[in-house]
Amino acid sequence: xxxxxxxxxxxxxxxxxxxxxxxxxxxxxxxxxxxxxxxxxxxxxxxxxxxxxxxxxxxxxxxxxxxxxxxxxxxxxxxxxxxxxxxxxxxxxxxxxxxxxxxxxxxxxxxxxxxxxxxxxxxxxxxxxxxxxxxxxxxxxxxxxxxxxxxxxxxxxxxxxxxxxxxxxxxxxxxxxxxxxxxxxxxxxxxxxxxxxxxxxxxxxxxxxxxxxxxxxxxxxxxxxxxxxxxxxxxxxxxxxxxxxxxxxxxxxxxxxxxxxxxxxxxxxxxxxxxxxxxxxxxxxxxxxxxxxxxxxxxxxxxxxxxxxxxxxxxxxxxxxxxxxxxxxxxxxxxxxxxxxxxx
Length: 344
Known about the structure:
Layout: H1 3-37, H2 44-72, H3 77-114, H4 117-145, H5 150-167, H6 169-184, E1 192-194, E2 200-206, E3 210-215, E4 220-224, H7 225-229, E5 234-235, E6 242-250, H8 256-271, E7 277-286, E8 291-299, H9 304-324
Antiparallel strand pairs: 1-2, 1-5, 2-3, 3-4, 6-8, 7-8
């Protein structure tokens, strides 16, 4: 029997033994991992074990093919070198894909435990970055492993990185501001806010580069994330109650008896108004043309429309009660006293 025939038989034997071993190892690993995963309640370890089990067969098949061909073409160094590089590349691709799936699943499971939609949204946004990072590390590892001189490549990447960094300075800043908004949560989708530039409206979307606010006039206003995080934001959705302060003045001709009665009248009005909580009402000062009172009450809601309805109801009741009690509101007036000089 010739040497080639013997090599062929041995190569086929190596291939079959490798395939059989891969199937056995995959089966044993599956049974073992299944027993281990039954001891835990979460499904994350099930997914990790399943991902590991899935890559055993293809890696085993690739190794079997490589070793069988390596044995048959034992003197063909160039061919074996090429096959070795292809084998390493395919195995690296399989491992990186499995690693990406595991990392993304771990991140999503962690976000789901927090039960925060903003964190889940952030994790979804970071998924391409995680994949790009693992593929980059894997590619560098592969190039170094096959003997590529990385000095020139590192220099090129460094120079390119500086250029890309300068070009992407603003987009990168906006992206990190987006991460800040998702983590710090100064506002969320659907909340009514006021920005430092005076924009009033409801947040419709928080994007990677900018956020969109539906103003009270109805138009969409696009605001960069950096201008939002670097400025003062008034978030009315976080307000549990509104504090309203009003000044009202009556004429100087109002009697002391009515002056004492005014706080009682106003207190009764506020207490009888729905969605209003009385705080205080006091005679505060003597104005240029009026005796001034300060009224303070709360609206226990962050609903702007409900607050305005309550304020309107209180104002109308004050007008009615003042009219019933003959209390006159003051308005800007000036009194001129003219003296005539009599001729002596």
